[in-house]
Amino acid sequence: MIIQKTTDSRLSTFDQDNFSFGNTFIDHMVICEYDNGAWGEVKLMPYGPLPFTPAMMGVNYGQACFEGMKAYKDADGEVFLFRVDKNFERINKSAKRLAMPEITEEMFVNGLKALVDVDRDWIPHGEGFSLYLRPLIFATEEALKARISKKYMFAIVATPAKNYYTEPVSVKISDYYSRAASGGVGFAKAAGNYAAAFYPTKLANEEGYEQVIWTDDATHEHFEESGTMNVFVRINDTIYTPKTSDKILDGVTRDSFIQLAKARGIEVVVDDVRVADVLEAHRQGTLKEVWGVGTAVVTSVFQSLGYKGEKFDLPQLSPEESFALSLQKALVDIQTNKAEDPFGWRLKVEKGIYTSFQS
């Protein structure tokens, strides 16, 4: 790995109490270019623009995928990554589906460690704070030809993060639009998946809803995902979540919630979740919670569901009563080194580790 540290740090301009998530970038980034059938050397370099043209194939034909993950700082200033192996497996799964070259585990893990170590002072500490990491792969060849690109870039950029949704949100259950179709790329973190979701979400926003619960493309009778999150439903004291498929992303936070719930003795049913069953449970008073989970948000509790012109208010439970909030706390406590990690999910980033990568 080539290390090129900035001589003009912007850290002094960063105010932990006043910043915009997704628009504030740390001092460095990681890049690696693919050409002539092979990946080159990984570089850690100052964050900034790169030279591309409007004819770049990733822009024109959509060969682009990414991951979302976080680094956390504990009370002693130690820094941790979380379930890196899952993100590494998934970015390659996405790349393969989009006919892009897979990356090596060394590129991925060492790139993350080096970036987080060099810019560890950018990681805010405190309730709800973290550093959001965005590894991505995209086609860079300059060619207006509908074919597989011959050139790519792997990159990692990062932005300080804070609580995404601080209050419960209202969501609309879609009865027309779908996020993904059978045989498509719903299971991949393809950039185009998100672009296609913006318009239906905009329509839901205009009706007073913050997000959309996506339903299956064939019948619109089954929950699939919610916004950019996996979705969970609690009926009585049982948690239900849709099984993954080629239409549903196998979320890292989703899997973590399932394992944490089972470890607590909570029954978790991973299967089809029917819209009709959820609404019937609401009518019977047994629908206790519906929530979404994802890396950026961790947990978003829903206060109401909208469906075909009707609005169904949900119980607002205390943190002690809520499975969503108690599982969120358990997860965040592991991520931030406040609790033991019986699953082996946490990865400590040793200070100065980047020096061992320098060439």
List keywords for this structure.
19 strands, alpha+beta, globular, 6-stranded mixed β-barrel, 10-stranded mixed β-sheet, 359 residues, 29% strand
How is this structure best summarized?
The chain is of the alpha+beta class and 359 residues long. Helix content is 23%, strand content 29%.
Order of helices and strands: EEEEHEEEHHEEEHEEEEHEHEEEHE
Structural classification? alpha+beta
Helix content: 10-25%
Low-confidence stretches: none
Radius of gyration: 21 Å
Shape: globular
Question: How are the elements arranged and paired?
Answer:
Blueprint (H helix, E strand, L loop, with lengths): L1 E2 L24 E8 L2 E2 L3 E4 L10 H5 L2 E3 L2 E5 L5 E4 L1 H14 L7 H14 L11 E10 L12 E10 L7 E5 L17 H16 L4 E5 L7 E4 L2 E7 L2 E4 L10 H12 L3 E4 L4 H10 L2 E8 L3 E10 L2 E4 L9 H13 L10 E4 L10
Parallel strand pairs: 1-4, 10-11, 10-17, 14-15
Antiparallel strand pairs: 2-3, 2-4, 2-9, 5-8, 6-7, 6-8, 7-19, 8-9, 11-12, 12-13, 13-14, 13-16, 16-17, 17-18
Helix pairs in contact: 5-7
Would you write up a description of this structure?
23% of the residues lie in helices and 29% in strands. The protein is an alpha+beta fold. Strands 1, 2, 3, 4, 5, 6, 7, 8, 9 and 19 form a ten-stranded mixed beta sheet that branches. A hairpin with a 5-residue loop joins strand 6 and strand 7 (79-82). The N and C termini lie close together (6 Å). 40% of the residues are buried. The model has no long low-confidence stretch (mean pLDDT 96).
